[in-house]
Amino acid sequence: MGDRGNVVLSYEQGGKIYFYTHWQGSNLREIVRQALIRGKSRWDDEPYLSRIILSEMVKDNVLEETGYGIAPYEMDSGALVKINLKERSVDGIKFADYILSERTEGGLNG
Question: What is the pTM of this model?
């Protein structure tokens, strides 16, 4: 079983990286929202913002051997949150608007 999901980050120079969770797929949109709030001063710094997003995902399980992964491809199926670092958007919503989205049961309501 599980609650799988991926966050895919698209970089200005064309590459992509996927952060995978086995247990927090249904919470990924809120996790990304919290990471963007915490990392607002790094929105223009792709490597640092990427690390902030990953840190927010794994913060309670950083020393575990399972539950999370990093790859250049999508792992398993489930929730997919698309972050475009060049455009500063999440699923097509600008970061500034995304962090103002209200949290609702089952996801974000913009």
Answer: 0.90
